Amino acid sequence: MEKKTLSLCPICLKRIPATILEEDGKIIIKKTCPEHGEFKDIYWGDAGLYKKFDDYGFIGKVEITNTNVENGCPFDCGLCPIHKSTTILANIDVTNRCNLNCPICFANANKSGKVYEPSFEEIKKMMENLRKEVPPTPAIQFAGGEPTVRSDLPELIRLARDMGFLHVQLATNGIKLKNINYLKKLKEAGLSTIYLQFDGISEKPYLTARGKNLLPIKKKVIENCREINFDSVVLVPTLVRGVNDNEIGGIIRYAAENVDVVRGVNFQPVSFAGRVDERTRLEGRITIPDFIKLVEEQTDGEICEEDFYPVPSVAPISVLVEKLTNDRKPILSSHQHCGASTYVFVDEDGKLIPITRFIDVEGFFEMVKENIDEIGKSKIHDVKVLGEIALKLPSLIDLDKAPKSVNIKKIVDLILGVLKSDYKALAELHYHMLMISCMHFMDAYNFDIKRAERCCIHYATPDNRIIPFCTYNTIYRQEVEEKFSIPLEEWRKMHRMGDDD
């Protein structure tokens, strides 16, 4: 197997040709910069799983663009006419200030001596730009730095709701959420989900990655959420080999024990920045297949490789919904090697039961694909097709293998609700399950332009651009923050704040 693509030189960031090929059962990316020499990295840790996921590729399209094609991907962001996925989740960095100084931080918060903190009006314009997309961006995440250091965060959350974002998410280290009254204020403003940095179930990962033991704070946040009935927290571990890769199973168990509050765990393997020794990279790189194998080992096979699917596997469902409603819908058309996920039920005895164990997921996907062309002929015909799907759905569910808590009628009703574009049904379906996922964001060493072109997680910036996640953090972050930052001392004078604020 051999594929040609374009990548970046990790040193000068110039665009250079690259080859993706199989080597010793793994997928490798190789490239040569005329000035800085050869580079080799692991693209995917398992060639067989790479090929399996290839079957789920889905190419989307973008109708609204903000930039022209002049220099070629990834130097025309964004979104430019080459891009193939609309925004599913938009990030807005509301500040680069932070109440931590983590040794591991892809945003390099607190390091520049300058403050990047767009004004309320600038953030409003960014959100307006996102809502102009076709379809409008459905979900937004306030990030940073640490977004809770902004005093107007509740107002930003409220504004996002007023502007029509269905899902408003907060990426946070949780320190300020120890204050239950502050947490209540965020909930009342309309916050949907807390995306909580959560690196492990022992103190070691925090001491290494964050410089202090934050585990008691994380647990306190979960307790506070339970107390105020805020039941949508996603745990977000940054995976580092030798630091917390042995705690994956424990983190999943912790999520299952707190399933009344925790909706999922999204693992993110660490990215490499700067000139990193090749041996260090090859030994330290954790790819999606590596993560999946660790999950299987550390859950004693309760969750295994066959339970995971690539993100775009669900894209045909969105296409079917779009045709049923005659309305453009957000489609998860990211590259098939960007992420993988599964859903698990937590049974009464604490056992983890992946949805794939009692629902014929492949059969469901096939049924969706078979009916896409049948939809749209007439309203009467559409009702008939939905009726046929409703009749067939129970045959795809094996109640003998299902959790005791599963009600087949309820599951069928929720799935039909999703197909009718009922957002509440989609949310309720999520609340019956725990999502276990892994998003492997790229760095300059393993960068693949074909992945970048299909990214659906984007950053909005003050200069009216919408930039794919990996290109932003690899290429654009420093440029954007430099352009819209002011010196720290000047910022302090403006806000009359001291060193401890």
From TrEMBL:
Q: What CDD domains is this protein classified in? A: Radical_SAM (cd01335)
Gene3D superfamilies tied to this protein: Aldolase class I
The record's InterPro entries line, in alphabetical order, gives: Aldolase_TIM, GDGT/MA_synthase, Methyltransferase_Class_D, rSAM, rSAM_sf, Zn_ribbon_HMPTM
Radical SAM core domain sequence ranges:
82-300
Q: Which UniProt keywords apply?
A: Iron, Iron-sulfur, Metal-binding, S-adenosyl-L-methionine
SUPFAM superfamilies under this entry? Radical SAM enzymes
Q: Name one GO molecular function term.
A: methyltransferase activity
Q: Does the keyword Cytoplasm apply?
A: no
The protein, known as: Radical SAM core domain-containing protein
Q: Which organism is it from?
A: Methanocaldococcus bathoardescens
